[in-house]
Structures are given as structure tokens and as C-alpha cells.
């Protein structure tokens, strides 16, 4: 089963691998949304996201990038 919008931690890890040069604190939600949809493992409906979901993913990405 692929990634869904609710898989914040797994999406964050995939984004960290796909975009290691990016500071997740500076990402725009429009870019974040596009990059998530472009992940090979992502299989959810692109229209099901919202600001709360994107913010949760961004926060996980920030935490993972600081480890």
C-alpha cells in the first residue's frame, strides 16, 4: 500500500530522501503539495490535502532534518 496524506512521518522521510538540499522551514505549501504528489510511493487523492495536513508533514520533515 502506498503513501496517503495521513502518513505524515513516512512522507517526511521520503521528502528528506528526495530533497536533501531543501530546508523544510522555508518550503511553500504549493511546492510541498507538488513534491508529495510526485513521490513514487504516493497513492492518495491529490485533492484530499489541506493546510493542516501539509503543516503536519512539514513539521515531521523539520524534525527529521534536525536529527
How would you describe this structure to a colleague?
With 67 residues, the chain is mainly α. It has one domain: IscX-like (Arc Repressor Mutant, subunit A, Orthogonal Bundle). 55% of the residues lie in helices and 0% in strands. It is built from three helices and no strands. Helix 1 crosses helix 3. The longest helix is centred in the last third of the chain and has 16 residues. The termini are far apart.
General form: globular
The major sheet is characterized as: none
By CATH reckoning, the class would read Mainly Alpha
Count the DSSP helices.
3
Task: Report the C-alpha radius of gyration, rounded.
Answer: 11 Å
CATH topology: Arc Repressor Mutant, subunit A
Poorly predicted regions: none
Helix content: 55-70%
Could you give the count of β-strands?
A: 0
Q: Please report which band the strand proportion falls in: under 5%, 5-15%, 15-25%, 25-35%, 35-45% or over 45%.
A: under 5%
Instruction: Quickly count the domains.
Output: 1
Structural class: mainly alpha
Distance between the termini: 27 Å
Q: What is the name of the CATH architecture?
A: Orthogonal Bundle
In sequence order, what are the helices and strands, one letter per element? HHH
Mean pLDDT: 96
CATH superfamily: IscX-like
Amino acid at each position: 500500500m502506498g503513501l496517503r496524506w495521513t502518513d505524515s512521518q513516512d512522507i517526511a522521510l521520503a521528502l528528506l530522501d528526495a530533497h536533501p538540499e531543501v530546508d523544510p522551514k522555508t518550503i511553500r505549501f504549493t511546492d510541498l503539495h507538488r513534491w508529495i504528489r510526485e513521490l513514487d510511493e504516493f497513492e492518495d487523492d491529490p485533492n484530499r490535502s489541506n493546510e493542516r495536513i501539509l503543516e503536519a508533514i512539514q513539521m515531521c520533515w523539520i524534525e527529521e532534518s534536525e536529527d
